[in-house]
Amino acid sequence: MASTLADIAQQALRHLNPKHILITGAKGQLGTCLRALLPEAQAMGHTELDICDLGAVHDFVNVHDIKLIINCAAYTNVEQAEDDKDACSRLNCEGPRNLAATGCQLIHVSTDYVFSGTSCKPYTTEDHTDPINVYGLSKLAGEQAILAENPSAIIVRTSWLYSAFGKNFVKTIHALSAERNELKVVCDQVGSPTWAHDLALALVVAAANYDGHGGIYHFSNEGVCSWYDLAHAVVKFSAHKNCAVLPVPSSAYPTKAARPHYSVLDKSKFASTFNVTIPHWQESLEQCLKQF
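Above: the chain sequence. Below: its structure as tokens.
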């Protein structure tokens, strides 16, 4: 029987030497969660280590005797990426290629946006990729660049990331529902939310079991919902009962970048490979909101 993600991660932490681990993008949501789990790791934000500078990356790895890199750095502003293609490509493709070229073990975080969102069943790691916006194209190019440099790298695609840190949908809804009587939220985009803490645990498990497990995996919390469903749950768990959440179509909020209408990820490969039980999104959301 598979063990809980938290239990397996605690076992994994005992087998890792964090002093030889580099966390890039360490000031973001996921990086913050990883720093809490691996406080002795080398944790660098973009102002401290520019992963797009190949020389700086090699120097850092050599000076600090880095054996494993967990790359959380990414250009994630999906709307802005449409007008800032070069910067997006540099951070999401060239930077990861530089990390892969160091020869270190590499765990890289990618996205559900490598898919078009036209499926009606959860995407497996074998399914055809077909990004529909600049951000998705850049992330797919980053995956390809990594595997060309380092075929043994681990790539973990995730979706709808949230936490108590930084800017994210859950924090926004939590704040707005305390101030307003009504919120209108898109109901025709469907996926699986991911608590950054759970993803950090998953990456720790992958790090401790790196050898022989290279390739692409999917990880998000279990279950399926729309943005409307997620917002409704945030309001419910936050006890902001005076705020009504109303469903609206995507057409009510036009965006420059196209969004996948269905981006549910099949996590069975990750769960079976690392023998873990992945928490349901509602369970993890409730745990996260307690931190608010």
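The chain has a mean pLDDT of 97.
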